[in-house]
Amino acid sequence: MSEAGLAMLRIVAGMAVATLHGWHKVVDGWQYLTAGAEWPLLHDTVQLGFPLPVLFAALAAFSQLVGGLLLATGACTRIAAFLVGSTMVTALVFNLQSGGPDAQLAGLYALVTGTFVLAGGGRWSVDRHLVR
What we know:
Layout: H1 2-35, H2 40-48, H3 53-73, H4 77-98, H5 103-119, H6 126-130
Helix pairs in contact: 1-3, 1-5, 2-3, 3-4, 4-5
């Protein structure tokens, strides 16, 4: 039963990160690069003081979309969870510094992804079937 709970948490969290957070950031980044549209993630990245902010914003968006999908399927789970978790810790710091509204959400995602960095994908994951 605990494997089912971990699988459900991994799938739901991964899909939520990919669809609710990663997808629109990738689309916004594409529109920024092709049409000069506003990209809120780039603004946040500049505000955090990252060097090469376009690169780091693109990496964050990519890690949330692709990392979320990998987490959901349980493929390269520990690596995907680490990448997603890293962006969530950065989002947590940003929200705490700026008074943003998403500190709790970013902290919760960081906690969940940290769990999968330590635990791996579990029995019902692509990883489990690849190591046989």
